[in-house]
Amino acid sequence: MLYYLFQYLNQLDVPGAGVFQYLSFRAAMAVILSLLISLIFGKRIILWLQRQQVGETVRNLGLEGQMQKQGTPTMGGIIILSAIVIPTLLFARLDNIYIILMLITTVWLGLIGFLDDYIKVFKKNKEGLAGRFKIIGQVSLGLIIGLTMYFNDDIVIREKLNPTEISINKDENCRTASDDIFKQQEVKSFKTTIPFVKNNQFDYSWLVSWLGPEYVKYTWIIFIPLVILIITAVSNGANLTDGLDGLATSTSAVIAATLGILAWVSGNFIFADYLNIMYIPNTGELSIFIGAFVGAAIGFLWYNSYPAQVFMGDTGSLALGGIIAVFAIIIRKELLIPILCGVFLVENLSVIMQVAYFKYTKRKFGEGKRIFLMSPLHHHYQKKGYHEAKIVQRFFIIGIMLAIFTIVTLKLR
What is the pLDDT of residues 6-17, one digit of tens each? Predict the structure, then answer.
């Protein structure tokens, strides 16, 4: 909103109004404002939650320090979501399709998580929102994102010129808008970045090439279900990771900062050429959204670090995971998620393996056995006697290592 105001003021030659034309300035302002919202208004929201007696109900699972969390305010995801949405509305261009998709994702999954927390806290139903309704909500969001990515004409890429075309352009002394590197024409494409291979682009259309000459128009058969799967998996992975003070928050902040770097290089034709990745026009505005995300996560961590003064609840965790998934899909880096979101992945897998092995051994031997002392994985280490703060710090370090490795994969081929 402020972008349009200052754009108008700039047309009136008001001194200093032109600064809002710079993405770097607006992204920095988004980070600062999100931090302020999290830190200043976050405290007031925590006090309000305490007055409303919106406290966490803790089941006794025999974990050290667990019962001390009883009554800690939950639904703190309201702080995170507010600190993301408000700066984005103020500093981003709201006619940008990518910003629209990210705002829809934030509000959509935030509402699903809020309903779950509301049922748990106010209706005193420990089960919360039925799992099938969560899945329906995540699948519905996946359909919205997938169909928009598939049909919206504003979601395009610029393909690189091949060496012959570059040579011709230089010989004719004819420069393109992207420094003789990328084609001027923006095209609809379902290519994505794939790590560890020299030609690091993968086209989903290739998976349906067996359908005949017009196979490209059937790409949705593969693309949309994959979008749904990624959003559901990462959203649930973040939700499962939110079991220790500061774990989901710190991990999400590292992932978001990495995605911000990937978005920036993908939207800059110089770095896109250097890294030999696709150039995606108009993704620069995402730096404002992701800046607000990082600021919100760091600000919330002020109160969520051990010992936590507030929990984000499903209001925050479902939204954080969904935001990460949709952001990665938009910048065509979703196939890097298993590396970048490795912490979420192992948390998800630990639960799947635990449940599957227990059911298998119970059916075969009459008594269920477990792989881990407890799942998700962070509780396994708690059972082994590791302090909660140490587990969080080590998972955080692993998250940083995975983030660095993710960026390195752009050149490691």
Answer: 777 777 778 777
